[in-house]
Design brief:
This protein is of the alpha/beta class. The chain folds into two domains: about 80 residues, Arc Repressor Mutant, subunit A (Orthogonal Bundle), CATH 1.10.10.10; about 220 residues, D-Maltodextrin-Binding Protein, domain 2 (3-Layer(aba) Sandwich), CATH 3.40.190.290. α1 crosses α2, α1 packs across α4 and α2 crosses α3. The protein is rod-shaped and about 105 Å long. The protein starts with 6 loop residues before the first helix and ends with a helix.
Amino acid sequence: MRRTPNFPALRAFEAAARLGSFARASEELHLTPSAVSHQVRALERWFERLLFRRANRQVTLTADGQRLLAGLTDAFDAIERVCAELIPPPPSSLSVHCTPSFAAKWLGPQLPAFVEAHPGFALRLSTSADPVDIGRHEEIDILIAYGRPPRGAGLIVESLGPEEIAALCTPAVARAVGPVGPGTVERFTRLDSSFSPVRWPDWFALNGLPIPTVSAGAAFDRGSLVISAAVQGLGVALETLRFAEVELGAGQLVRLGAGRVDSLYRDLHFLCYRERDRALEKIQAFRRWLLDVEEESRAGQTEISA
């Protein structure tokens, strides 16, 4: 058995001796000055000798106190070094920025898998509908841009691949419209996504259909809101299947025309990061994970189409 005094008493003495004050030691140890004083008194009784001289509310070390402090300083420094080696490093912060719809409809549901696979990264996700210049926002590590790929010196941009943009509606709306043709384009209400680079005239031109003379229906500033409106039966959404995977899988939405009309294909989302950061582990880990998930998602969409 080791013949050493109470450890909290040694800790209280070391702090008071190092800081030269019971009051400052109490702040460091989150104790009252009285508690620190009691711990030191207990230590002096254990050694049967004074460690501090007390006079006029000031304390100074005795020769025995100085000797004990020298030994404790080396011991506490050694303890601190060993503990520092065993403490896991703090998480590396990884800041990802994207549009609200991409976060809500696609990225957000996938993120728990990334967090579980990479517990060493403290993930921070932010969103906005407006374009963001990652070159001017040092706090953002990775940008997932929408629409057009950003350009700039020192910027790496990778497409997440072509996305299918289809006319989507509820099965009831699809039945009401019937076969899609020049004589039926007036039968459905078009829902618009204000920020989408793909417009209804593109879809009509692709399928050789005339543009309806009646005005379109409601317009929304989020792709997720367009999908929600389509699920509610308010009309037909022209949106990327990336935002409608759940609704298509559940049968809430179907492609208008039952496969007899064509979908558009565009690269709409882009992974962006600074060239100087390309070798960082957190950048490479998120990149590999995102591209793997995107590949799996595309395979799932192919199965739904089949």
